[in-house]
Amino acid sequence: MRDVRMKGFAERADVEEVQDFLGVQIRPLASEAVDLLSCVGRVLAEEVRAEVDVPGFARSAMDGYAVCGEDTFGASAYDPIALSVLGEALPGKPFAGRVERGNAVRVMTGAPIPAGADAVVMAEVCEERKGVVEISEAVAPHKNIGAIGEDIRVGDLVLRAGRRLRPQDAGLLASIGVSAPTCVRRPRVQLVITGDELLPAGSQPEGPRIVDSNSVVVRSLVARDGGELLPFEILPDRPEIISDALRDADADVVIVTGGSSVGTEDHAPRLVAELGSLDFHGISMRPSSPTGVGRIEGRLVFLLPGNPVSCLCAYEFFAGPSLRALGGRSREWPHRRVRLPLARKISSAVGRTDYVRIAVESGKVIPIATSGASILSSTVRADGCVIVPRELEGMAEGAEVEVLLYDDEIPEEVAP
Ligand code: AMP
Ligand code: MG
């Protein structure tokens, strides 16, 4: 591969070309058993079918008395029916005997229905005194009884493969006796943060040295996209050190930030080409044109530019969807989208994909004026972004555009 340092890119790939390449390369990772108590948010690798009925026994749906329903026929407040109380059934503590005609057993919600009984009269219409209960309302057989399998039946398909587990899904898995659902493994991500000028996050910027903000952004995006972040350090712009980091990464995905462009200190592209393949370097987009994508021994490597907006943009275009796909999730934008009119036109160039930060005000989309890839505060002011596809020269004022919001909350201005 041609050394692009201080020469610039001879040609740039289209965003779609790179995305298509990643689409073909990436398959969900293998599956693993995940402890039930930490499975929320994970993606099921296999469908789950119930091997038990829930409940596995007929249970009382009320506090009251288990009876033979026919015994209560004709009961009213003026003419209550008296049954003798044989004992009690509690949740987890069944009544051992049998309810014959003329008898009742006191039951609490969730208690097994005693043999012989076929209905439960609710406590509110009963009065018990000295071993006898007076019932002032009739109940039909089967009333107030939760039948075996009323929640889940043996063989039911309870969750499909690909499901991102929610809290109630984990609860349901617990209820059918699953202890470790089979989930897609989370992609392991190695960050390689490069730059002689960088101080670790949490430090004070000092003279010409700046604080590494890219790793702070990227680590949260990796977490959002289901990746497992490995420990990392900031590395100097020294090829032998960056080379070791690229070669030794015990990860599914390596994300390099900084040093990805065509400056004299931009070593990563050449190193990726030497250690594996640099499949793309230089993409027709703004910002993030110096982005690179390669592979080293089965690991995907993303070279994200150091400029914070470029870094965020390149992550969202390429690394984020790839991580989601590896983890069995959808590649799609992971937040809400809305369609709204543009308050001002957006200029772009045919042949280039633009990532435009926008704010939403009074139901309109306002492009944020700065185009600087180094202006991180522009992403903080923004509610989301609009993507101007490569075949458009821009978007006209008033045109309805799709906004990819940065959050799941709809900005107040858009809420109905
Ligand atoms: P580079 O991609 O290494 O040429 O860096 C481009 C710009 O981004 C330079 O101004 C760097 O100082 C800045 N930069 C690089 N890495 C980071 C980082 N981790 N956090 C914040 N800014 C960075
Ligand atoms: Mg640099």
Brief digest:
The protein has 416 residues and is of the alpha/beta class. Helices cover 18% and strands 28% of the residues. It binds adenosine monophosphate and magnesium ion (MG).
How would you describe this protein?
This protein is an alpha/beta fold and 416 residues long. The protein has four domains: 157 residues, MoaB/Mog-like domain (Molybdenum Cofactor Biosythetic Enzyme, Chain A); 55 residues, Alpha-Beta Complex (Molybdopterin biosynthesis moea protein, domain 2); 88 residues, Molybdopterin biosynthesis moea protein, domain 3 (Molybdopterin biosynthesis moeA protein, domain 3, Beta Complex); 70 residues, Beta-clip (Beta Barrel). The protein contains seven helices and 29 strands. Strands 13, 16, 17, 18, 19, 21 and 22 form a seven-stranded mixed beta sheet that branches. α1 runs parallel beside α6, α3 packs parallel to α6 and α4 crosses α5. The longest helix is centred in the last third of the chain and has 19 residues. It is elongated and about 100 Å long. It starts with 14 loop residues before the first helix and ends in an 11-residue tail after the last strand. The model has no long low-confidence stretch (mean pLDDT 96). Magnesium ion (MG) binds next to loops.
